[in-house]
Each structure stands twice: as C-alpha cells, then as structure tokens.
Amino acid sequence: MHISETKITVRYAETDQMGVVYHANYLVWLEVGRTQLVSELGFRYASMEEEGILSPVVDVHISYHKPAKYGEQVTVRTWVDAYDGIRVTYGYEVIDGQGQCSVKAKTQHVCVKKDSFRPIILKKHFPDWDQAYRRALG
C-alpha cells in the first residue's frame, strides 16, 4: 500500500483562541494530503477537470483524538483505502509534532461529469488512474 506523507506547519490563522487547530481546518489538510497522493501516483486533479470531470466528496468520517497546536509541524498520512471502479475512499491520519495521532479520517469521492454530475466509470474514462488506484491499494 502506498502511503503519502505531507508536512504542514500549523499557522496561527488555523487555530482557535485556545491555540489548537479549529476542527474544520483538518478537512483542508486532508485535501492537501489527497492532492499530494494523487500527484505521487502521477496525476493531477486539474487535468481531470480540464476534461470536464470532477471528483466531489460524497462522504466524510473524521475522528478527533488529540489537538494539534500552533507552530507544531504535523504530518498528513494519506492512502487509497478502498476503490471499486466508481468510488474511491481515501484514508488519513494526521500525526502531531510528538508523533501522536490527532485525527483519523476517511473521505469518499465519485468522479462525475461536470455538466450533469452523473457518475463515470473511471476505468473507461481514465484507465491509467484506475490502474494506479488498484496498485496503490497493494
């Protein structure tokens, strides 16, 4: 299984008055990690969008374990957790500066046509992506 690791330094603007990361900002970090993983697999979401295909999030599960804090460097670990040719589920862990898990999450995505939001079969439209996802699963 391929696991991507993305380093992020917690910025002041990402924290609340207590100096801990505001819960919604973790979703932004998941996107950063997901984009990095896709890049490591050899692709760009922008290329898919240029062909009229989008990849919206259709489901999110996130569990908060330990807050990350201002100034800390966190690591977003991202991998392909499940893939069935239509839906892809990414798994994530956000590891804090002390090596402890702050967040565990999963996001599920479906590729759709931009004009109709109708799902596509990835293998048919983007066979290289399909193969890369299958390889990434291990």
UniProtKB/TrEMBL annotation:
| EC number per UniProt | 3.1.2.-
Q: Name one Pfam family in it.
A: 4HBT_2
Q: Which SUPFAM superfamilies match?
A: Thioesterase/thiol ester dehydrase-isomerase
Q: Please report the name of this protein according to its UniProt entry.
A: Acyl-CoA thioester hydrolase
**Similarity comment text for this entry:** Belongs to the 4-hydroxybenzoyl-CoA thioesterase family.
NCBIfam families from the xrefs? YbgC/FadM family acyl-CoA thioesterase (TIGR00051)
Q: Which organism is it from?
A: Scopulibacillus daqui
Per UniProt, the keywords (alphabetical) are: Hydrolase
**GO molecular function list:** hydrolase activity
Annotated signal peptide: none
